[in-house]
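Why predict the complex rather than its parts? Because the way molecules touch one another can change local conformation, and only a joint prediction can capture that. The input here totals 620 residues.
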Amino acid sequence: MTDKSSSYKPGDVNGEKPPAITRRDAIVVAGAALLATGVPLLGQTTVPSSPGIPPDPTKVQGRVPTDLGQRSTFENPRRFVFRALPSGESGTPLQHLRGIVTPSDLHFERHHGGIPAIDPTKYTLLIHGMCERPLKFSLDDLKRFPSVSRIHFIECSGNGVSLGPRTDREQTPQQTDGLLSTSEWTGVPLALLFKEVGISPGAKWFLAEGSDAARMTRSIPVEKAFDDAMIAYSQNGEAIRPEQGYPARLLLPGWEGNSNVKWIQRIEIGDTPWMTREETSKYTDPLANGTARQFSFVMDCKSLITFPAYPNVLSSGWWDVTGLAWSGRGKVARVEVSTDRGRSWEDAELQAPVLSKCTTRFRYLWKYGGGEAYLMSRATDETGYVQPTHAELVAARGPGTFYHHNDIRCWKVESDGHVFFATEI
Amino acid sequence: MRPRRAIALSVLVVAGIAAAARPFLHQRQYPPRFGFGRAATAEEIRRADTDVRPDGHGLPHDSGTVAAGEVVYKQRCVGCHGATGVEGPFNKLVGRMPGDSFNFARDPKLLPLRTIGSYWPYATTLYDYVNRAMPFDSPGSLKPREVYSVVAYLLNRNGIISATAVMDEHTLPAVVMPSRNKFVPDDRRGGREIR
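Output of the joint prediction:
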């Protein structure tokens, strides 16, 4: 998110209201209320019968098959639109998701020139520059190459910057860190395409260019192509959504979202970076020593508790604290949870599969005894990197640090069970 | 889940993870070339290849002046960037920090002050970006002369070139921006250290 000032608060540019409290939240709230009045078990609340819902579904025939499935009418997950602009963004409702894969229609968005409308039959990818044979590939050409499928997260490097001022305690996980999503991506390894054009031995960088109105452009080291980069055309089994780069995008596993150029139309191979606007004036990181870090591609290890969180209300008893952990450098090795503001930590359980450069689901069974509590998670990746505190990040980079905001988040449970984003941590 | 199914599934998962760990090009014997795609013509490449490097590679043979750039700016840019490049509502383009200090990490409030004069390390980036993505309501519609001119105007407004300077494919790459030496490579490496 490049265009916002530090005082920017999600929602106040376009007057967006936070997502409505959903049925799941309502059940938690209702459960707490029932507990308060002496009814013992959460989840035994009966939902009043709704129009079109028979009193007993076992006594009437149900719907017939249809050509396109839909969510239950009781489920209404929505992205949260931070700014409805061509250069705007929307966040994934992390608090309503389980597992690690993001439904494609809930994948976060961040655009630089809106979502282009592209006819796949006219789509081409041009690869030229330092190579023997500059080639133009149609979408069908790309799909003829041996494909690879991988499950990877994409995270905007600006994810979490709304935490900067840390003044708004009424923020959901979607609002604090919703610019994070995970999909199964299928495409052609970029290394195969570089072999096909006969990449020159002296090639060191390539320029990736999108076909949006921004012609979004980033310089990428060639080694990434021979590591794990791909030109992806499928997302969760079907064609990539227009918001994620239809019909094809660059996928750089573990690297900041904007470098995964969407709607990719051209790759130029060269020997130096182009120093585009995005990699100089925008996605760079000022440091306390009066310099700015450039080409800071990798997303460092991070985690977030997605439940319970604002606006849940907790009753005393057992709670399955759960969330996501991820690292752009490999696998998550460990996640610890603290319920006492970081004074003590215990290992959370990692849910298999634990994949490289992918979100890992963690969970921690917690008995809430009432009163105040502070829920925090802290992830460690396989390089030994430990998710830092906000104070540690600021000490390393300075208080003006903006992108790569991977510090430990905290949810404060008030003595009445109401959960808020802890602005004081 | 029955034990046999569980075993079968775990074998599948382990096999999948093992396959995923192999680098792309060693999964099987690939031919040297597949023969997919078609040769790109020189004309196709020429039309698509608009990018400009700091050494000036990619700049077209043309030129522009500060005075002509002011006309372009007033016609095409003020709606987003303000009458003098500081008013917004979108990115602030004009301004220098006192003494050309580069203390943007000191305070989040300084972020919007990352102007051309205070933060952009290369003048060529201005040409590349304006040419590809500006003006916002009609990207890529400016002619090379207009792009050179508006770039000259913005450099002049930022106190970097004189009002009589002419920007062309030779003079633009020679412009030394105030923040030219402020950028350092990423030194994060994973491991214990927080950077």
